[in-house]
Structures are given as C-alpha cells and as structure tokens.
Amino acid sequence: MSESILSIRGLRKQYASGTDALKSVDLDIKRGEIFALLGPNGAGKTTLISIICGIVTPSGGEVLIDGKNWQRHFREARTRIGLVPQELTMDVFEPLISTVSFSRELFGRRPDPKRIEEILRELSLWDKRKTILKELSGGMKRRVMIAKALAHDPDILFLDEPTAGVDVELRRDMWNMVRRLREHGTTIILTTHYIEEAEEMADRVGVINKGELILVEEKTELMKKLGRKVLHLQLAEPLAAIPPTLAEWNPRLSEDGSTLTYEFDAKAERTGIPSLLTAMRDAGIAFKDLDTHQSSLEDIFVGLIHHSKAAA
C-alpha cells in the first residue's frame, strides 16, 4: 500500500467568467493523517474539496485514491470519501435517524442499525434520533451533517469549515471526535478559518491563496522554520524615544514608553540579544523584567498571505 491515500496532480478549475479558482494544484495526503488547509475566503479551499468529492468538474488534472483515478472508478472513490460541507443541507422534515441511515445505504453500504447507533451516540445525538430535523438547533444540525458523512464509514473524511458558527463546546467535541477517527485509521482533511484548530489538531498544514497552494509543511517544522520570537523588555524607567545607539536592532517602543520589543529569529546563530542588552546598559537603560513569545501559526499564516499578495 502506498503511503499516500490521496494524490492530486495538476488540478485546475477555471470558470466561464475566466476566473481561475485553482491553478495546477499538486498535493499528496498521507494515509491516516490530519491535514489542515488554511486560506482566506475565496482562496480555493471549497473548490478543491468539491472537485475531489465529485461535486465540481475540474478543468484539468487528476485525483488518485490509492493510485486509482477517481473519475474512472467514481463509485468506489465516492464510497471511500465522506464530506461534511460548509452549508447545512438536509431534508428538514425527516427524523434524524432516517436521514443518517439513508446516507449509509446511499453509498452502497448494507443497513447496520448498530453502527448508526454508535455514530449517533458518539455525537450526542442518540436521544434526538426521532426528532424532525427542522426542530434541531444549528449546532445539532452540524452534528447531524457529521453523522451523515460518517454513516458509510469512509476512509477519507473532508470537513469544510466544520466549526464555523458553532459554540466552543461543540468545537471541542468535534476536535475530540476527529482525533478518535484518526486513531481508527481515518484520513482527515479539514479546511478552516480558525488557526487554533489547525494548531491544535493537524499533522501537516497547507496554505492556499488565490487558487495556488503556496506552502505545505509539517506543522511543527513550519512553526520551527517560520516562527520568530519576540523579546519584551519591561523598562525600569519609561523612555520618551528609542536612542540612536539602539537603531540597528530596530526595537519598538510601547506608547507609554515602558516596554521595548525586539523581534528575532530563534534559529539564527546570533539572535542579537546579548549585544542589544549590552548596548542598552551602555546607554544607561535598565530593565526590570523580560520575557519571550514564540509566534503562533496565526502570525505565520498572516505573514505568508501578505507575502503572496505582495509577490502577485
């Protein structure tokens, strides 16, 4: 078996208007990983997922699931994929258990009431199983969408902005459920606006902007490679301005003059901190406290998007 369960090659989508929604995307998804696809609105996240799931027709390129072309083996591919879409789309007059059971059979799986019960209990839906869908809250409807996607036991699960507009409790429940699914071998690809979601769960992160995949990296490596550290120095006495002798370190002074902030590359051989502190001592600037802060995935993401816009 190949390490990659999903291989995307030269995938393009151009709409009749001439808009390039995807520009020759190449991506390999490893079996059993959690992959987070980050990008601003309109970046191409949903288009990419919709093509893989057979909802949108690509303009070019191919998708391979375990080495098989997903268009030539469409029925098999679709059985192996589960999708939780961004929009809530359900037959609102159906009882909850009926719509989830129907989803299982729709993808060619035999009826399995025991499995459906397991899924509904996992998502805290069992007590609501006879409830008509239109009577459920937004958060509960989101849980039903996940149950429908899991009903046929897919190998690959796509979560398109799964926690957009849901409460913190449901978000935590979903994160826990995603981890359990991964433990059972499910490969999970999620798109998200919530940086902390990717930081919390993903093994690898891809950043997409204007239809181009601008970076794919192991999350820990990405944060190591691009993460910068910030040194905060609480001054003993406020400064009116930064003295010229400190200019080469380009520190920032807080509005009240009480804190100096210096940004540095944590991986560099020379961070510049010792020489900065020496220069401060020589200038008669004392500090009473200091701390460092590692940049988050959000800082990195914003920096990457800004860089790709500047290069465009």
Automatic annotation (TrEMBL):
Family matches, as CDD domains: ABC_DR_subfamily_A
One MF annotation (Gene Ontology) recorded for this entry: ATP binding
Pfam family, one: ABC_tran
InterPro entries tied to this protein: AAA+_ATPase, ABC_transporter-like_ATP-bd, ABC_transporter-like_CS, ABC_transporter_ATP-binding, P-loop_NTPase
Gene3D superfamilies xrefs: P-loop containing nucleotide triphosphate hydrolases (3.40.50.300)
Keywords: ATP-binding, Nucleotide-binding, Transport
Residue span(s) of domain ABC transporter: 6-235
PANTHER family registered for this protein in UniProt: ABC TRANSPORTER ATP-BINDING PROTEIN (PTHR42711)
Protein name: ABC transporter ATP-binding protein
Species annotation: Sphingomonas hankyongi
